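Aim 2 progress update. The chain analyzed this quarter is reproduced below.
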Amino acid sequence: MSARPFILGLTGSIGMGKSAVAQMLRELGVPVFDADAAVHRLQAAGSALLPAIEAEFPGSTGPDGVRRAELGAQVFGDRAALARLEAIMHPAVAQARVAFMQEHGDAPLVVFDIPLLYERAGPKGLDAVAVVSAPAAMQRERVMARPGMTEEKFAQILALQVPDAQKRERADHVIDTGVTPGETARAVAALVAALRLKNHTADPG
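Predicted structure tokens:
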């Protein structure tokens, strides 16, 4: 086996089914680092980051941690504000990722679930990238079914994301969620088996 886990980046645009695929990976025993979940923990009550967030975005925190609606109103659609928030969050998320790797250093395969991989982080440090994708009509149907979603908000979100076609073109693997869940699960299992085997047979030197 290689000296370290094979690191697969998992990404996909809104409504493509990335969360479902991440759960399939967990059920196969693959450790998954969820960047969004890490952010939620770091914005919860008692987090050491809250004073910095409040100082930069007044009124965005309270006794229960970050007030998501208030913070979202201050950063949504404002790239400069989003960059200021990321400057606070990213170092702490990176520390959480290091701790995750230390915990799962003996696994043959780990996954970094990064929603805005191409938009923000890029594939640096990853061995491969898998993009979760579905037909545009199915994506729209899923997203518009979410509470509080509007056509305008959906359009704004899409405008901030790299188009799905470009993500698929740049990815090493594409996971299709436009089929039945069973078909997607089988494709995920096949990918996991292949990557585990690849790492097992890799030259550790």
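The chain has a mean pLDDT of 92. The longest strand covers residues 6-11. These observations will guide the mutagenesis experiments scheduled for the next reporting period.
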